[in-house]
Design goal:
With about 375 residues, the protein is mainly alpha-helical. It is built from 16 helices and three strands. The protein binds coenzyme A.
Length: about 375
């Protein structure tokens, strides 16, 4: 019998579906750890590459391990001429999340070991995507603007290389640090919608690239990663700090959903927001674009006062990326650059102890009936 209970947990809210050793979200203290380390400490003491190693391998790297990891990642930077051509043929109007999903799919087609789900092979696929998701984003960005792509360099960090491939220059160290911090904060967050999607796909013994394509599809939605783009559209619509309070009151009066606020797990503050806000404020100081953070702090104050709903990571990340010079539609693809680490750790964890994910549903359709002849 398919259905023996009518207790429905819509959205799987509050349901424990599996064990994980990757990260721990603690809403009671608004805190988050990756493999046991507090995320804010990782941001202050490590680079994204160290955290990319930690999340997937379970331990922080020693100097030999990080050198080897970095060399491996740098050696994989660069896509085939065929894939570059495919990207150049996609419509300039396509959203970069869609071109990225297509690019990852092609990387899967090009990998002769696509069906090999051993740990070692999937780890290699991780390094391939860690190295080339930034290349796919930067190439699509430039093709859409009618610009020639800039080939990756293999003598600089992931953050530096990404700016270089997009804009042809490496910005000041404080911008690189703020970007790196955003990648660390976006890297992993337990059984969120896109990570769970990658685990669902992995559970059918499908392949790594298919799981990541599914993750990209889930992350794109405005209730999940897509929110960082909507936050910036909202800030631009308001545009003037003196209009922010009234804008928010009007929006709440019409029951509008305010992007960048609320969270399924955190109900009194997102652990990652203070760190990202600190670096977004530094970007405002560095660029002189103070109004975005001024508008943000008014929106936050009114939202907490009126609804007791707190901002999530997308709220400060959106304006931070804008002040770094990125087009709004690149914000969610940048999230993918970071989240490939968490997705990978979960794909490997699911593969190591797999059970097909197949929940039940409570049928509420028509009773069984005969076909009239
Ligand atoms: N703006 C306005 N009201 C919000 C809100 C928001 N961003 N987030 C939650 N609420 C309200 C809901 O309207 C609901 O009110 P009600 O009980 O009067 O109907 C209540 O808070 C509970 O919200 P709900 O949507 O049921 O919570 P959830 O756990 O299912 O949703 C999110 C979590 C993230 C989907 C939701 O907060 C949201 O849509 N936020 C905006 C998108 C976003 O920033 N996503 C990134 C998440 S990291």
């Amino acid at each position: 019998m398919e259905n023996n209970s009518t207790i429905v947990h819509q959205g799987l809210a509050g349901v424990l579906v599996d064990h994980t050793a990757v990260s721990k979200v603690m809403p009671e203290t608004n805190s988050l750890t990756y493999r046991g380390y507090a995320v804010q400490d990782l941001c202050e003491h490590f680079r994204f590459e160290d955290v990319a190693y930690l999340i997937v391998n379970g331990e922080l790297p020693n100097s030999e391990q990080i050198t080897e990891f970095q060399e491996h990642e740098r050696s994989k930077r660069g896509i085939s001429d065929e894939l570059s051509k495919i990207l150049s043929l996609l419509p300039a109007s396509a959203h970069p999340m869609d071109t990225l999903r297509t690019g990852v799919s092609v990387l899967g087609c090009e990998d002769s070991r696509i069906w090999d789900n051993t740990y070692e092979t999937n780890y290699d696929k991780y390094i391939n995507l860690l190295a080339n998701i930034p290349v796919l984003i930067a190439y699509s960005y430039r093709y859409a603007k009618g610009l020639d792509p800039i080939a990756p360099r293999n003598d600089i960090s992931m953050a530096e290389n990404f700016f270089y491939m997009c804009f042809g220059v490496i910005p000041k160290p404080e911008v690189i640090k703020a970007f790196d911090v955003s990648l660390i904060l976006y890297a992993e967050h337990s059984f969120n919608c896109s990570t769970f999607t990658t685990r669902v796909i992995t559970s059918s013994e499908s392949d790594f690239y298919s799981a990541v394509c599914g993750g990209i599809g889930a992350l794109k939605g405005p209730l999940h990663g897509g929110a960082n783009e909507y936050v910036m559209h909202m800030l631009k619509e308001i545009d003037d700090p003196t209009k922010a309070e009234q804008w928010m009151l009007d929006a709440l009066a019409t029951k509008k959903k305010i992007m960048g606020f609320g969270h399924r797990v955190y109900k009194s503050g997102d652990s990652r927001v203070p760190t990202m806000t600190k670096y977004a404020n530094l970007m405002a100081e560095a660029t002189g674009q103070n109004k975005w953070m001024e508008i943000s702090s008014i929106l936050e104050k009114v939202m907490i006062e009126k609804k007791n709903i707190y901002p999530n990571l997308d709220f400060p990340a959106g304006p931070a990326y804008y002040m770094m010079g990125f087009d709004i539609e690149m914000f969610t693809p940048i999230f993918v650059m970071a989240r490939i680490t968490g997705w990978t750790a979960h794909i490997l964890e699911q593969t190591a102890n797999n059970k097909l994910i197949r929940p039940l549903s409570n049928y509420i359709g028509a009773n069984q009936r005969s076909i009239e002849s």
